[in-house]
Amino acid sequence: MRTVITAKRLWDGRRGIDEPVVTIEDGRIERIATRAAAELPAGAHLVTLGGATLAPALVDVHTHGAAGYDAMEATPEALGAICGFWAEHGTGSFLATTVTAPLDATLRAVEGLAKWIARQPAQCEARMAGIHLEGPFLSHAKRGAHPPEHLLPPRIETFDRLCEAGEGHVRLMTLAPELEGATELAAHASARGVRISIGHSNATAKEARTVIAAGAASATHTFNAMRPLDHREPGILGTVLTDDRLYAELICDGIHNAPEMARLWWRAKGPERGILITDALSAAGMPDGEYQLGGQTVRVTAGRALLPGDVLAGSVLTLNRAVMNFMRFSGAELEEALRLATVNPAAMIGLESTGRLTEGSVADLIAVDAEGRLEASFVRGARAF
Question: What is the count of structural domains for the chain?
Answer without folding.
Answer: 2
